[in-house]
Amino acid sequence: MNKKYLKIILLIIFVFFLSIGFLIPYTGDDWNNLINHNGNLKFIIQSAIFNYNSFEGRFFSRIFVFLFNYYKPLWVIINTFGMVFLYYFMTKVSIKSNKIFMFLLTFLCLLLVDRETFSQIYVWITGNTTYFIPFLFMIFIIYINRDIFEEKSTDFKYNKIWLIVLPILSFVFSMFVENVSVGIITTIILILIYDYKKYKKINYPLIFSLLSSMIGLYLMLNSPGTKNRIDDMESFSSLSLFSKLLISFPRQMNYVFIKNSFFICLVLVYLIYNIFKNYKGIKKILLMLFVSVIPLITVLANTYYVIFDRYINRLIFFIDCSSIFIFIYWVLFLVLLIYFVIKFNKNDNYKILFFFLIALINNAAMLISPLAGGRTSFLSTIMLYICVIILLDNLSIKLFCSNKILIISSLFCITLMGLFIKHYIYCYNLDLKREEYIKKQLSENKSEIEIIILPEFYLWNANAWNDWHMFTFKEYYNIPAEKSVKLVYLESISD
Fold first, then answer.
1. How far is CA 192 from CA 163, 201, 210, 362, in A?
2. Fewer CB in 10 Å around end: N or C, the chain?
3. Residue 399: is it exposed, middle or buried by C-beta count within 10 angstroms (0-12/13-18/19+)?
4. Helix (H) or strand (E) run with residue 348 in it
5. How many CA atoms lie within 13 A of 48 on its CB side?
6. Taking all residues of the chain, what is their mean pLDDT, rounded to a whole number?
7. Is 285 within the bounds of a domain?
8. Residue 9: inside a domain
9. Any residues with CB less than 8 A from the CB of 80 and at least 6 apart, and which?
């Protein structure tokens, strides 16, 4: 691909995430992180220590969460550059061809993550800082060690400073959040194995980084705060391992796979291409029916939900992995996909295996956790997207080189970004009206304070639905605790 086009795409990504970063309101846990801090670094560190000893072991993530919530422009800049780097990384490790379409397709992978993941990672400061920031470090490690995937050596060379810097960073980012820490450790172990296999050398900076990451994860898991949090979730932690898996496995399948309609579509392209190319007669028909019917219904149900904010009752069965039939189907679907990759893909199998193992192990780490959501599955989702982009890039599909498909995909990307920005402009203006209306009611000493509802469409916990968030919301907007509140739509306000 011409470097000029890549630079244009990177610039567009930068402008897009910079724009929505400044437009998004504070939501959910952000309110609590703001009311207890004034930007003083000493106080922030003291708060992180208190948090470590009382609620959770994520010591360093709490420091950054408190800091980024208070200094939002700093978060916007770091997150924007982080998204640019993530996209650049994805293209660097997955695309060998010169097809511009593949670069646009990769961008769509970022834009078309499921709605919950988008709202919890891209536009929620607390969730982004906790899960995305350490993930950036993980992919940075892969990027500087990409020699393991290349036929010839890359430019990056370790020097003595990395013996100090990399282990320190590994320790810090391994105390952000548990499942990403597992991802960092898994990544380092796989790189060490691949590195030794290819070059017969021991990567000492990574050896020390592995040890420091393990220490960081140990300190996080064995903190007084983590033990207290486990005690608070006794109903789940007291279950047997088998019972936990019965609950968690279908749930993780939902978050990582079934809800990601665009990922399903890309996998379908790969499978259908290979079915048409390698099978004939009744076997082709049966395989086509098997791989397409339920996935297409699933995509339809998810699309309807995204557009209308609700599922079609008759189709909800197909997006619920708690159904044994649907669960078995998707397991068989994935087994068939793995079989096709092994049998028909002749290139980059080691690279695909690398990213698949990271996704698998990171996802497995969540099977014993009572918590789950788009934020916890983001790492696995991106790793799987990289796998499928590699597979599609290796296919000789003439459509990918078509000018028409290039124009259509470009217009789709632009339209999609425009819709997102329009939506967040609306949320920004509505949030300002919410704040003004609260102040007006407080000045009039009203006993009941009406709170304008923000659209939960691609926002996370924007309306203080539970008691804890309502408490922090009141504190943030200086609403006296004794005053009652009422959530209302803008249209219902007479003045």
1. 15, 9, 10, 18
2. C
3. exposed
4. none
5. 19
6. 88
7. yes
8. no
9. 14, 17, 18, 21
**Co-location of 255 and 380 in the same domain:** yes
Beta bridge partners of 451: 487
Which tokens is 110 given?
Answer: 């970022």
Q: What is the pLDDT of residues 107-159, one digit of tens each?
A: 999 999 988 899 999 999 999 999 999 999 999 999 998 888 876 666 666 77
- Coil, helix or strand for 79? helix
Token code pair at residue 108: 């769509």
Closest alpha carbon to 315 in 335, 331, 297, 293: 297
- Residue 224 tokens, joined: 């007084």
From residue 386, give the alpha-carbon distance in Å to each of 89, 112, 359: 10, 14, 10
Predicted TM-score of the model (pTM): 0.92
pLDDT number for residue 155 = 60
Q: Is residue 406 part of a domain?
A: no
**Is residue 93 within 8 Å of 145, Cβ to Cβ?**
no
Amino acid at 174: S
- Name the residue range of residue 478's domain: 430-492
Look at the block and give the residue holding tokens 């019917």. 293
Would you state the pLDDT for residue 322?
Answer: 63
* 359 shares its domain with 473: no
Residue 112 to residue 429: CA distance in whole angstroms: 25
Q: How much is the average pLDDT of 60-88?
A: 95
